[in-house]
Amino acid sequence: MAQFQFFDDTTSPSQGPARIAKLRSELSRRGFDGFIVPRADEHQGEYVPKSAERLSWLTGFTGSAGTAVILTSKAALIVDGRYTVQAAEQVDTSVIAPVQLAHMSAEDWIGANLPEGGVLAYDPWLHTSDSLKRLEQAVAKAGGKLSPVDINLVDVIWIDRPAPPQAPVRPHPIDYAGETAEAKLERIRRKMAEAKLDALVISDPHSLAWAFNLRGGDVGHTPLPLGYAVLPREGRASLFFDPAKITNEAGAAVGELAEFAPIEAFQNALDALGQKGGKVRVDSATGAVALIRRIEAAGGKVDVGADPIALMKAVKNQAEIAGSHAAHLRDGVAMARYLAWLDHEAPKGQLSEIDAVEALEAFRIETGALRNISFPSISGAGPNAALPHYRVTTSSNRKLEINQIFLIDSGAQYEDGTTDITRTIIVGVPTAEMRDRFTRVLQGHITIARIVFPKGTTGAQIDAFARKPLWDAGLDFDHGTGHGIGSYLSVHEGPQRIAKTGTTPLEVGMMLSNEPGFYKQGDYGIRIENLILVEPRAIPGGDREMLGFETLTFTPIDLRLVEPALMTKDEIAWLNDYHAKVREKIGPHLDADTRAWLESATRPIG
């Protein structure tokens, strides 16, 4: 049995109609014509506690991104390309219409469907300043108006809503953090001084955890302590948590740097900030409208802008890099043992997707260092592999069939590092089309791994390189090529990313994923993912400061799916060199049988 993930069907399309009907009754009672339900908590987090899973509870949709707009006579669920199929399967489409974000945004849908003069209600704790501006424009286009609510209307009808989490807050050891909280706060305050800020409201729990070297367990698979902080340019910081979560160790670790205060005192602290009349930074990405309005109502000046901590956190120090190397070596051994086991067991035709997840988790547990998985494993056989963010449940569970592709995307949380890896495996014999598509994805992956670029280059400028081999065949994929990675924090970390939206310049020390893919709906899916580290790269004779990537992940890539005839000599050389490093790093830690499997799985080609 898996210890860190479950496979129960937690929602059903049948739950939506009755709950949406109750919400509409509440709208009618309060004189509203609609309510917007984003997939978000008060920190605008990707991973949210059970008490904030409002979208899932209301509609049945369990994806990590989406927005429902419930009007009195119609409703829509807006999702991105990752969740198009999933949304249609999980909601009652006779009551709520799935809408693909690429075709129409939530704001577009509101502008087209809110009745003239209609009042759209929203929870100001679940929207940022930017998202509210877009909502205002959409509502104005429809000739309606927006109205904030003091209590979330879903919470009003969610009678058995779970209590907010109370996982203990603990210190993150300096051996892994690599920098004291005191030194981090000094750096943050220097950034505040440059921006002429008098205080910083830290609304992102990732930033709070990193700045004060704290970790928690309030959301699944990410060691986050949910809370807020107020950091004045001078004087002690204040950390706002449920008092039940504060351990003696956390108190001792924070010491004189900050005082702990109950979460109930946070809004009064915002009032006090406003009354001082200083310039207060609120994060544009995670700062709720409710924060801004509270400070402004008390007379304060709010500066909505980038959280300065986000970029500091993204650039890993030497201790964090060393920890990641150790975590990836440990994880690579577990992955090699797992893939050898899978190659032995899958052809027997008895393995299910859940069996595959449970086995991988067991191999990671055997390392003795696993704290959690970094996200629910994506274990997709055959057509389920074509769903980029598929999560296996007891009802969707498929057998790994002969001559089908199996995709496993998983990761681990170790105290010294966070991992994320995808491997695509053929059980039996692949078709020529599968080999072609896999090789094109591999070529894109290799291009990113080998690319050298000038300092100041953004992820958006690099993203197309991963797609060209697919574009050459009239193909593409509907997700980014890479996301940032935290250090024993979130498996998805910004602001760095390799994607069309990746506008942050890449810097030495940033960690990202390299994961191009291809998905043939109803048939198979392919993704090859390693983690990479930005490092300096000297080019003899060049006149620019150049950067490149070090590959951190060492796990075999399935050679049965590779078509060498499509590849260049340089691409084949990269793959052979990568596999040689896998043998060198991972081989000595394996038993004789697994080492023999690894030798075969990483044999040179070409």
Automatic annotation (TrEMBL):
Belongs to the peptidase M24B family. This is Xaa-Pro aminopeptidase. GO terms for molecular function: metal ion binding; metalloaminopeptidase activity. GO terms for cellular component: cytoplasm. It comes from the Bacteria. The lineage of its organism: Bacteria, Pseudomonadati, Pseudomonadota, Alphaproteobacteria, Hyphomicrobiales. Residues 545-605 form the Peptidase M24 C-terminal domain. It holds the Pfam family Peptidase_M24. It comes from Microvirga guangxiensis. Keywords: Aminopeptidase, Hydrolase, Metal-binding, Protease. Coiled coil: none annotated. PANTHER family: XAA-PRO AMINOPEPTIDASE 1. Residues 326-535 form the Peptidase M24 domain. Residues 19-150 form the Creatinase N-terminal domain.
